[in-house]
Amino acid sequence: MKVLFINEYLPQEMLGLMWLSRAIKDAGHEAKALFIPDKEWLNKVKEFNPDVVCFSTTTGMHLYFAEINRQVKELLPDVFSIFGGPHPTFSPEYIETPGIDAICRGEGETAVVKLLAKLQAGEDYYETENFWFKHKESGEVIKNPQGQLIQDLDELGFPDRDIIYEAGEIYANSDRKVFVTQRGCPMDCSFCFHHAWKRKVYGANNKQYTRKRSVSHIIAEINDVRSKYNLKFVHFLDDIFNLRSDWLEEFCERYPKEVGLPFDVILMANMTKEKHIEMLKKAGCVYARIAFEAASDYIRNAVFRKNTTRDQLTNAAGWIKKYGIRLGSLNMLGGPGGTMEDEWATVDLNIECKVDHPLVSIMQPYPEFDINQMAKDMGYAVAGYDDFPQKFNRTSSIEFEFKHQLESLHKWFPIVVRYPWLKPFAKKAITWHSLSRVWLVMYMLFSEYMVAEQAQIYAKAQGLKGIRYWAPIDFTRRLATKGVLRTYEAIFSKYINKFFDPRKLAMSLQMGDERVVAHMD
């Protein structure tokens, strides 16, 4: 069968799509990807003429992709449409949306192959695990149970990067590519999908849910990618890279000998030891992030359920700085039950730890996440899922009394962390709601500069030299290019877009952007 994945251009490769494609192709089917925006996308859909079209969507983007699917169905009425990803998994009633034939909940590799086999054979497919279907004749929603979680990740093979790189050359050309060494997480954070996926979707325990690829398998994949494509820097996407000390020791021993490329990671503070940082430094790690989330013990541990002490956070951060690795922090504003004083305390924690690259998001209570019910139990009004913002860092979905100040602090956060002397002024500035757009532009500019700083570190790690890689020069180049592209789109695009699509160049500038790869923009 012919399967078409339709997705937006994103500033990094889509690993989930790659693994699905690997399973589909290994089962003897044809798979192709199409990224939008693309002026010719409907013509390309018609030319490929797929039997099945697949979408992956988050809450906030679900209405957008439903509309894309509607247009596909108008063109190809008989195509079978499947939706997967976080929103269908946690809001399976999404199946009732007109034009959607099936939703896949949870892991899809095994399930989608079984479904394709039944569709190809013309068999009854309504009893396929992991899927909810809408019956073609009656419209009845058919709900199937979950299958087993894939336990041996090595058996999946390598993600099929060809499907991404053939559809978007900017992904193939990028120096920095993403890799993941595990699935699942043992933590119970109330704002993260893992606890809901683990308990509410699969009813699994930590051993069943948290799985690690072998060191040999991940090293073989990296070297395979390097042999075929441009690769100078490895970005590990794992939530907790130091999940197992024995695995980390083997990795740090073998990686510099068998791979030798610079890399970055995310670490869990309550699992981090100084020995881990020393090993990572020797292995080639140049950048490490720690999830601070919130300085308030109540918000961090009672509300967010991070199970970390302040000492664990400051110790882990201190070791990263001690060994000369760039320190990044992941922070979250807007925890229900918090105050503006609590939010400013998180700024102070970052200042205390001398964070180089502070990243901050606004907490969103997504469907089936425990934080959603917590917020409602505390008496907060929470936006309906159809009203969730597409860009979750623009606004809060919880109606706090100090909502506007919270949203403005988000824009000031990284600037004040890097320049603490601005804090007194920033405290006043966040109350001036009329200047919120100014603060947004300021935030975007400073974030762009931090990305340029990061690019300079990556260039140095790769042995690249010259004025081109200096952060101020790179920042100026990025800013000038994006400014020209925005002017072009506003004035000339409707006349000469057939010769040049500015969106692809803009996307190339975002490849590896820390705000994106750390899910902060």
Describe it for me?
The structure is a single chain. With 521 residues, the chain is α/β, with parallel strands linked by helices. It folds into two domains: 2-143, Cobalamin-binding domain (Rossmann fold, 3-Layer(aba) Sandwich); 174-421, TIM Barrel (Alpha-Beta Barrel), CATH 3.20.20.70. The chain contains 23 helices and 15 strands. The chain has helices at residues 15-26, 41-48, 62-75, 86-90, 109-121, 162-167, 169-173, 193-201, 206-209, 215-228, 245-258, 274-283, 297-303, 310-322, 340-352, 370-377, 403-418, 423-429, 436-461, 471-491, 493-496, 502-510, 514-517; strands spanning 2-8, 30-36, 52-56, 80-84, 102-104, 131-134, 141-143, 176-179, 182-183, 211-212, 233-236, 263-267, 285-293, 326-333, 357-362. It has a seven-stranded mixed β-sheet with strand order 2-1-3-4-5-6-7, sandwiched between helices. Helix 4 (86-90) links the parallel strand 4 and strand 5 (102-104). Helix 11 (245-258) runs parallel beside helix 12, helix 17 runs parallel beside helix 19 (436-461) and helix 20 packs antiparallel against helix 22. The protein starts with a strand and ends with a helix.
